[in-house]
Amino acid sequence: MKAAEPATSDQAGALRQRAAEARLRDIRMVHGAGMGHVGGELSAMDILVTLYFGGVLRYDPADPSDPERDRFVLSKGHSAAALYTTLAMAGYFDTAELDSWLAPLSRLNGHPDRNKVPGVETNTGPLGHGFPVAVGIALSGQMDGSERRTFVLTGDGELQEGSMWEAAMAAGHFGLERLVCIVDRNRLQQGDRTETTMGLDPLPAKFAAFGWAVRETDGHDVAALLDTFAALPFEAGRPNCVIANTTKGRGVSFIEDRKEWHHRVPTDEEYARAVAELEGGQA
Q: In CATH, what class is 14-279?
């Protein structure tokens, strides 16, 4: 089982390279299938890569059911391609299978399915469901007296769901200090900006009011992410919230911070441009 290690500059460089590779794989999947949520996938990629390849999560692809593994839940389940890319690169299944994304009979469907894909902890897709499940997983670990941790990645638009705040209240009440909620704070959702649709700011104060220990960080700075995760738990007896400030579509200039790329697929010309940018190291 992999354990956390101190961050180094070499490690940060390696993580940036992995993130660039993961972005290339992701946009290839979306372009090939003609479907996907590339904007939110690219915004979350540095977070996923840091968790899986930065020594943060304890996991073993050869034993995905190890009872003492850390759990990761992708609450923003529409970003499934980003999770599949990360899991394949981590060794849960062959990366060649990524090309079957959304094909008939492929197990890599539009939302993660724990019954089909090793490494997926719970089925997600309907927004507002994964976070409450993660709270229940963390509570079960606390009741078991286990050292395992539960990480959950949410979208910021997803925080408009009432179930999210019911779960946040429960986590604070039970003092789930081995629970880590990471908010992909790209400030865009389907159709418009989050603050236009339903304002979330001041988001740190909202989580703090529910009993959480909160830190903000740059969600694209892998060194900053490593430092943040190394400080867990932030406070004894409190669940942990990491607000990761990100840019939707990170790494591709014409996709970045554009609401229309929530669910848009690149044309052949756009795909070629995106690949050129990503291979040029602009991520």
A: alpha beta
Strand partners, 216: 243
With CA atoms as reference, report the closest residue to 132 among 217, 49, 239. 239
Domain range summary for the chain, segments of one domain joined by +: 14-279
Cβ pair 75, 67 in contact under 8 A? no
Instruction: State the residue for tokens 């943040």.
Output: 228
> For residues 197 and 21, what is the distance between their CA atoms, to the nearest angstrom?
33
Angstrom CA distances, 8 to 45, 57, 282, stand at 20, 17, 22
Determine contact, residues 238/177, Cβ cutoff 8 Å. Answer: yes
pTM exceeds 0.85, yes or no: yes
Q: Per residue in 75-102, pLDDT tens? A: 999 999 999 999 999 999 999 999 999 9
CB 81 within 8 Å of CB 34: no
